[in-house]
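COURSE: Structural Biology Practicum
ASSIGNMENT: Worksheet 4, Part C
STUDENT ID: 0417
INSTRUCTIONS: Below are two proteins. For each, the amino acid sequence is given first, followed by its structure token string. Answer the questions at the end about the second protein only.

PROTEIN I
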Amino acid sequence: MRGVRWALALGLAGLGLAGLAACDAAADDAANTLAGSVSRVYPLGFEHTRARLGGTELAIQYVAAGGAVPVQVVVRLADCPVDGPGPVDLTACGAVLGQRGASDLPAFRSGALRLSAYAPTPGAPVVGEFDAVVQVDTRDFAVRGTFDTALEAAP
């Protein structure tokens, strides 16, 4: 009888640890999200996010299996220098674009980016959210996302 109780206790402890690991994974996943009505006409699935800083732009990328970038938030740094946290008017100085296979994300119309953590230093945390309106013919669709990643220098 004692052996059964120990086996049961160890099994429950193992389930508890597995549950904690699942909660941690869910928390990581919750920090990087994509959603919106555009999902009716364009698939939003992705595996991870990355933030890249190049000479002329900052890009927040949602990367799918195989390396495709179905959604990318781009800030043109010449139009809107970004050196710390704060809002960025994507309509004035950026875009939301992407491609999956032969399909392009619908055309960008307007949007906003909010950086809650950012420094233009490789390895620095890049945390925030964006929302945008994209258009197919005369129909508007919403796309929004959250991200929590580290800044990389663009290759």
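PROTEIN II
(use this one for the questions)
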Amino acid sequence: MNIRQGAWHIAKHELSRDWIGVVFTVLFCLYLALITTSVYNDDERITSWLLDMVFIVTFPSLAFVMNKTTMRFWRDDTYTGKLAEWRTIPIPLSHLVIGRLLQLVMVLTLALTIFFTTQYVLVSQLHEQISIGAYILFALFWYFYALSMAVGYVYFEIGHTGKAYALFCYISVVVFVLICVVIGLAKAGLVHGLLGELQKGHWWYTAGAFAVCAVTLYSGYMIIKRRLKQRHYLNKKLLMSS
């Protein structure tokens, strides 16, 4: 089995096993799209700040399926146990890493397609004042941003213990919120500002996001693969209970 086949098999296996989690992720994404539609029609600074917060903080997490494993990673260190099981088969590390990244791409593509399609249909300000081309570039910019950030989450998800991953998630949220606070204090609405720039034909924002995402995916693959070669796969709870 070559790398492409092996990675596809892993991604397909994980998504088919977690189909209920995929459904919950899609429903959450739809809910998020619906509750943020009114923000576009409000010129208040606080609502613009909230929109920036949703995009910056939430979008990277939409690449991850909402399931029991995700909710238990701190207590049970579930990813370490799963990786240990996979390594006994054995499965090449390249298959594991690309398969996980492929799963990331598939889930995020589904989630953000639903999010941006819902908003474009329901928000009159978008489909009346923003061209479809500019809006597609806008959606792609945030897609590339979310995917780039999500690669960092995957590095900690499968490259470290559950507690280290949880701490990284918490710290990331705090950092993202602080960034949003700075943007809000500067009165620089990022979401509205980007829409305006892309409507003017400034496509290079999305091109830059794509370039960063491509570099992040490749370097992330190499770094995660190297990390999996070095890390241990012993779950302390499992050892104590055996």
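ANSWER KEY EXCERPT:
Q1: The chain has one domain: 3-234.
Q2: Confidence is low (pLDDT under 50) at residues 236-242.
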